Every structure is written in C-alpha cells, then in structure tokens.
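[Discussion] Sanity-checking designs against the backbone

I'm trying to build intuition for which residues belong where. Below is a structure token string of 213 positions. I'd appreciate it if someone posts a full sequence so I can compare it with mine line by line.
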C-alpha cells in the first residue's frame, strides 16, 4: 500500500509540470508572435512614411503584370502601399490575422508567409491586366485568413479548428474581396492570397506518427 502511494506522487508532480510547461510554451509563443507581427507592421509603416517624406516613389517597385521586369515586385509589393488610407485599411486585419497565424511557431509563420507571397504575387502577375501595377499587403491578409481557417483541419488540432471557425465567422466578409468587379481592388491578389494560405496550411501541416501495431 505504501509503495502504491509512493508511486502516485511523482506522477502528480509530473502532470503538474507538464501543464506548467504547456502554459509557458503558449505564453512564449504568443509573445514571439506579437513581436514578429509588430515588426512586420512597423516595416510596412516605416516604408510608407519614408516614401511620403522623401518622395521615393516606392510604388513603382510593385508587381507589373505580364512584365518580366515586374517579377521582383512579387516580393516587394506586400510591403508597399498606395497611400496611408490603403495602409490603414490593411493594418488591423494584418496585425490580428498575422498574430493568429504566428501562434503555432515563427518558423511555420515565415514559411507560410513566403508561400502566400509567392502564390498571391504570381497570381497577380499572370492574371491581372497587362501592365497593371499592384501593391499592398491585402494578399497577405487573405493568405493569413485562409491559413488560420484551414490549419486546424489539416493538423487535426481541436483548438485550431475552433479558432479557425471563430476567424471565419468574424472575417467572413473578406470572401467578397476575391470576386472581380471592384474598381481599384486587386481581386487576383485576394483570391490567390487565399489559395496560398490554404496551400501553406496543407504544406506545413504536422504529420502525426502512425501508432505502432
């Protein structure tokens, strides 16, 4: 009897330590996600302020559809905006959805961001009107939306599934942005950003080990 009681104590302590480690891990992940996304948003604002104050005309480095010289703009366009109104419109959803996308690890977040940027940018380059210039972080916004909504389904992670449902309910109106017809809006960037986010969630899914038979 005494031996049985002695074995229970370490198990209890081990369980408590595991919970503490998990809480610490979540808090650390949230802090890291907040810092990375703050840096992303700060970069967007710093570039727009520099563009305005110094008249750098940075928008010219965006994506120019069907122009080989405009291909480098695929990497630059998400950090450039057509004025402060455009930047302000993107800032809040970029910060919120970016933070949620980064909660599962900075490495996965950076990889997902690269996938979204490439898929969105290539979609804009191929399917926009030839010669059209496109800038803005809205492709990233739609990409993070698609990533957060579908990540839990591919990972089979209950908490992420619930989070994805909440995000889908709150930001469902974003889906209208993938439809053509809105003047001055790159629906191509939105649509392919969303596709890129889903593709990133699938590509970066955590593969579970098969149970040993």
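Best answer:
Here's mine. Compare freely.
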């Amino acid at each position: 009897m005494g031996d049985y009681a002695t074995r229970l104590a370490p198990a209890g302590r081990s369980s408590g330590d595991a919970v503490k480690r998990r809480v610490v891990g979540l808090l650390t992940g949230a802090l890291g996600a907040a810092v990375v996304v703050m840096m992303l948003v700060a970069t967007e604002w710093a570039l727009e302020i520099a563009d305005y104050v110094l008249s750098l005309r940075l928008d010219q480095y965006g994506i120019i559809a069907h122009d080989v010289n405009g291909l480098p703009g695929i990497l630059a366009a998400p950090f450039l905006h057509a004025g402060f109104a455009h930047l302000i419109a993107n800032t809040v959803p970029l910060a919120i959805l970016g933070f949620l996308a980064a909660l599962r690890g900075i490495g996965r977040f950076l990889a997902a961001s690269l996938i979204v940027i490439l898929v969105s940018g290539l979609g804009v380059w191929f399917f926009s009107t030839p010669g059209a210039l496109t800038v803005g972080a809205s492709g990233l916004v739609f990409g993070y939306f698609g990533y957060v909504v579908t990540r839990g389904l591919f990972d089979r992670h209950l908490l992420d599934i619930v989070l994805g449902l909440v995000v889908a309910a709150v930001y469902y109106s974003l889906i209208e942005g993938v439809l053509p017809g809105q003047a001055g809006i790159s629906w191509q960037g939105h649509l392919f950003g969303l596709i890129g986010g889903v593709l990133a969630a699938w590509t970066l899914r955590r593969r579970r080990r098969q149970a040993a038979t």
